[in-house]
Design a protein that fits this description.
D-Maltodextrin-Binding Protein, domain 2; alpha/beta; 13 strands; MetI-like fold; ten-stranded mixed beta sheet
């Protein structure tokens, strides 16, 4: 048997193996679709928002709202699914049916007409935290100071929103600067280092954070604003809302609601009441024989945590142990993206160099879009397009597949251009020599051009692969819990940035290993010089 036939058989075996792996990968999706028959109550929440929802020292999702949801599910025979989500994508998650409700210290004020609401169950206030030795005792003392808030937060709205009071607008105008950060841990880091003078945040979160700190910080007695927390359902979904509302009122009647409130030290904020029917369509949900608590209004009271939500500090070993829960998803995204994007990039490169102008321009436009728009946006499009374009509600497992598809399509565009540059760098004379020797076009490419191209593109391919290791953290945009997302959740629950630094060490080690392997491969190809 000649070499051409042997090589042909090898290529067929490789193709069959590759197809088999792909079928196993996509075939695993179907059992998860069938398993959705059992009724689930899917709570969407921000896992970096203690004490309402966060990751505890045992690596479990817990919090005041999740305890309430768990009790509601037990009484209705539902299966509770705790689903951490990207807060900015909460509306799309709810609209597509990926979650049953948004239950996570969700502010009702200003959103009254956007969702079907439960009645308020928490009276929340926006408070200001300062350093104990700052000399700031009242809100007016913030004039000429730097105040930091979380981006897109109620505190920001209280100062600069359309419904901000004249007093708060005047306060905002008197500040030296109003800065925005991604999360409360960053805010406290800024305050502790002296980069800012004060932080504005929700009173429940502030109390939790202060319980994890020493006496370095204090909470001002004056409040920026007061707001109400409720459970947000998809607009028009009154049936599910009524079931949850009725169960909550039953819990209030038998004392279960109050016991959960005490567990989390939120006695000064809880306000669930049978008499409050503001957001219930067509009147109140009845509970017979109720003896219910009245709404609470404690604007000036000290709201420090009195019990329950205490922060247990984790050792470095315990942090690493919890981070392992996210390492496998991170490696899965990395490996599968490489597996699919590198061969796809070769196909796109071939189309890009096609003599047919239509195909060439299609490849050019594709590459331009993939390289010219943010990967985060591309992931969102891949995930939400089935619903918004085709009206298809995808199962939860689709998040993983959407992540792989989005990453693969993006990186294939970069690999395509790298391959193209490598192929076009091979002198034309080699092709002409191969033609004279009787080689076919396929033989010329796979035996002469391709091996040299692989050698030449190794450095830029290595750079892209190293970038991919770090980009895996963008999977959080689809609420796919990879390692950096786990690190942020642990960081929020611990009120510390230490877990993020541990995650950084992991990424460094991972990249070091990848760079080492790629360097070894590059040295093995030195014989092509």
């Amino acid at each position: 048997m000649d070499k051409n036939k042997i090589n042909g058989i090898k290529r067929k075996k490789y193709c069959i193996t590759y197809l088999f792996i792909s079928l196993l990968f996509f075939g695993s999706m179907f059992p998860s679709i069938v398993s959705q028959a059992k009724q689930e109550f899917i709570v969407g929440f921000d896992a970096e928002f203690p004490p309402y929802g966060y990751m505890d020292e045992n690596g479990e999702y817990t919090g005041f709202d999740l305890d309430l949801a768990d009790e509601v599910c037990k009484r209705n025979g539902w299966t509770l699914v705790k689903r951490p989500i990207l807060w900015d994508s909460k509306d799309s998650e709810l609209e597509t049916g990926a979650i049953s409700c948004i239950w996570n210290g969700f502010t009702m004020n200003g959103r009254e007409d956007l969702y079907t609401w439960s009645t308020p169950y928490v009276d929340n206030s926006q408070v200001v935290i300062v350093r104990s030795n700052s000399g700031i005792e009242k809100l007016k003392d913030l004039a000429g100071k730097v105040l930091v808030v979380q981006a897109d937060s109620s505190a920001l709205a209280a100062l600069e929103g359309d419904n901000a009071t004249d007093e708060n607008k005047a306060l905002a105008a008197s500040l030296k600067d109003l800065q925005q950060v991604e999360n409360y841990n960053s805010a406290f880091m800024n305050l502790e280092s002296g980069m800012v003078d004060a932080i504005a945040m929700d009173i429940g979160v502030a109390s939790y954070q202060l319980s994890a700190k020493d006496d370095t910080f204090l909470m001002l007695d004056e409040r920026l604003s007061s707001e109400e927390y409720g459970i947000g359902f998809k607009l028009g979904n009154t049936e599910l809302r009524d079931e949850v509302q009725l169960t909550l009122l039953e819990m209030l009647e038998d004392g279960t609601f109050d016991s959960i409130v005490k567990k989390w030290g939120l006695e000064d904020s809880a306000c669930l009441s049978k008499e409050d029917t503001t957001y219930i369509d067509g009147g109140q949900v009845p509970v017979h024989g109720s003896k219910l608590a009245e709404p609470n209004a404690n604007e000036g009271k000290d709201s420090s945590i009195s019990g329950g939500a205490k922060v247990k500090k984790l050792s470095i070993v315990e942090v690493i142990k919890q981070l392992f829960a996210g390492i496998v998803p991170t490696i899965s995204v990395f490996v599968l993206t490489i597996l699919f994007s590198m061969p796809l990039g070769l196909v796109i490169a071939a189309i890009r160099m096609s003599k047919f102008k239509a195909l060439e321009w299609i490849a050019k436009i594709y590459i331009s879009i993939m390289r010219g728009t943010p990967l985060m946006l591309q992931l969102l499009v891949v995930f939400f397009a089935p619903y918004y374009v085709f009206g298809l509600s995808m199962p939860y497992s689709y998040r993983f597949y959407a992540t792989i598809i989005g990453f693969s399509l993006n990186y294939a565009a970069y690999f395509a251009e790298i391959y193209r540059s490598g192929i076009q760098s091979i002198p034309q004379g080699q092709r002409e020599a191969a033609q004279i020797m009787g080689y076919s076009r396929n033989q010329t490419f796979f035996r002469i051009i391709f091996p040299q191209m692989v050698k030449r593109v190794m450095p830029p391919v290595t750079n892209e692969i190293i970038t991919l290791v770090k980009d895996t953290s963008l999977a959080f945009v689809l609420s796919y819990t990879e390692m950096f997302t786990v690190a942020k959740q642990i960081s929020a629950g611990q009120a510390s940035l230490f877990p993020l630094f541990v995650a950084g060490v992991f990424y460094y080690v991972f990249n070091f290993v990848v760079a080492f392997i790629m360097e070894r491969i590059e040295k093995r190809l030195d014989y092509y010089r």
